[in-house]
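Onboarding guide, step 5: your first structure request.
Type a short instruction followed by the sequence, for example:

Predict the 3D structure of this protein.
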Amino acid sequence: MTVINHTEFAYKVRAKLIEGENSLEPAIQAKLRQIRQQALLRQKTATESVLSSVKLGNTLAMPVNTWQRITKQLVPQLGTGFAILTLVVGLVALDAYEDFILAQEMAEVDSALLTDDLPPEAYADNAFSFFLKAD
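The system replies with C-alpha cells like these:
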C-alpha cells in the first residue's frame, strides 16, 4: 500500500481531468473554461470579503472552522468552571447551615438558662456540678 500526500493526489487528479478535457469538443471546452473562470472569480471575492471583515474586526464573519475550534476549547473549560462554582456554592451553603444550627442550639441553652429558677452563676460553680453528678 503506497501512501501519497494530498498535494500529489491533487496533481494526479488534475492531470486526469486535463487529459479528459482534451478529448471533449471545443464548444464544451470553452463552456468549461468559462464556468471555471466564474468559480475562481466567486472564490476570490468571497476570500476578499472574509479577509476585509476580519481586518475590520467583525468577529461574526470568522470562518466556521474558527468558531468550531473556539467552541471545542471553550466548552470543556466552561464545564469545569461550572463544576467548581457549584462546589464552592455548596460549601458556602453548608457552612451557613451549620452556623444556623449552632446558633439555634445556643439559643436553646440561653433560653433554658434564663428561664430556669437557678441563677446562671450556679451552673459555673464546681460544687453545684458535683452536687448534680451525685444525684
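Each response can be followed by summary notes, for example: The chain has a mean pLDDT of 79.
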